[in-house]
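A common beginner's mistake is to predict each chain separately and then try to dock the pieces by hand. The better habit, illustrated here, is to supply every component at once so that their relative placement is modeled jointly.
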Amino acid sequence: MTKKDNFLKGFFKENPIFVFLLGMCPALAVTTTFETSLGMGLLVVFVLTSSNIVVSLVKKWIPHDVRTPAYIVIIATFVTVVKMLTEAYAIELYDALGVFLPLIVVNCLILGRAEAFASKNNVVDSAIDGLGMGLGFTLGLITIGILREFLATGGIMFGVYLPIGDHPITLVSLDMIINLFNANFHITDYGIKVFSLPPGAFIALGMILAVFQFKKARKDRKIAIAKMEMIAEKKRLAAEKKKAAAIKAAQEKQAAPKLAKAGE
Amino acid sequence: MLDKLKIALVLVVVGALSGIIIYSVNELTADTIAQNKIDKEVSYYKDLFNLSADTNITYDAIEIDGYLDQEVTIYDNSGDVLGYIYKATDKNNYGEVTVLVGIAVDGTISNAVISSTTNTPTFVQTIKDKYIDNFSNQAVDSFTIDSKTGATYTYTSVVTIIEAASDYYLENRGE
Amino acid sequence: MSFTLFATAIISAMLINNVILMQFLGICPFLGVSKKSSAAIGMSAAVLFVMVISSAITYSLYDLVLYKYGIPYISTIAFILVIASLVQFVEMFIKKTSKSLYKSLGIYLPLITTNCAILGISEGNITNIWTETMPYWQGLFIAVSTALGTGLGFGLIIFAFSSIREKLEASNVPDAWKGVPISLVVAGIMSLAFLGLAGII
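With all components supplied together, the output reads:
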């Protein structure tokens, strides 16, 4: 697998959230806003890449029987480091992520990649794989986060949790567009607020997975139709051949007595 | 026997390395964390009484039983009591809201500020922009509350905390 | 340590702050295991057992050892190692005592280690229950009651959901929604129902 394929596979073909359904717990819990999803995704990228690199470096020395506890200790080290750094430099993000920051340890994605890829490949490939998968995970989280925040509040805010800039700003907002036409109508008053709450998380993720499955179902149906057409075509050709052979045989049968008569 | 020993040795080495890494990061960050927390609280205290950032104040915090978390008595630099700040955390469906309410010695609510929250930021921003300033400079025994805000859960938590703080003040510190 | 404290902890952990539908812990087994009711019951029994014992051990570990000797930040590693060894232990025990149960649980037993719910409850107990002034036995009592309630809530939801899912498999769902998407929407509706219980305690 080339390095580029290795990196890009985590984005769409093997996206951890939408294809493998790994890491569902943070995908539902931290995606109330775009910014928390982005923050969580970047932290997971860091932990996944670092743990892939370390596991790939020490894979020769860890005996096969104890590899799971050893991987868990390595991953937990990085998670604790990330937790302390976040608490020191981005305390709002730390409060918003809550218990899901230490829960990165049991994220099936990280342990799964360490087990399936990093313990069998060299350092550079493992690092690229970790980076790709982590960024794909972030992409998935951001998709859900944007959908939920947009439906719940009609806009997307930035600067609340990440320590960037002094004041939170509103990046995008339907209000901005509507205000071009009618300055008195505030769509933020009509947001579907349930999408900020737990039920909305389930429903939003269900909707996104349904979109993916719709595309896949359509592609599968096209392939099935093409296959059936090919089978029908083959059958038709076979039937025509049979008919042609039958006609030829009948003609020969008719021609044979005539030849015999002519021979006399 | 030898490979069991090897397994144990590997685990010990991995554990020791991770312990060292964590210990050193902790040394690096623990002071920053503690200092950040204190700095932030003190800057809120100053904001609540409209003091500039370089005024010197001293304060005295006591824990309270019941709904409120703590009461902080603020002294200005000549030792007189400026007022009391009440801190409480309320839980609502979106998460938690922590509010600091400042009540001056003359019985007016000087300010209220949402110090930390896990509610959705757009709702919190609505409260911060339009509704939380309406509490300033109202008398603590007769203040009015706006009713419709468009961010109901967050606003209900804020109002509950302000009412609890004013009740406590009237019971224990008011004349 | 009264009955009220026990009942409050259990009801709030089981219904009000339900572990799957409100706190989002334990979603992976929720979507993965819950297709057959029998597997669901077996899994939730194992999870309940591991959850109660691990929360007792981790709370004691934090209060008596980690905090006392000034290393609270090592809690993540310590907790996950405790949980992993406990699961290993339970697996060996079940293998020796009841071969049929072991066979029916199959792969789900080692998967309990990466179940967010167990580590989440252990960490959650430290955040919500432990304070510097709380006496050890009272804190332990509340922590274990919370874990018991959480495990019961987990089992309740997984069993209910597996029954619903068995019916969903047999019904006429459009192609795009078949399988996981429609189950998630059903879970969202269940979560809406549980949202109505908020604020009771």
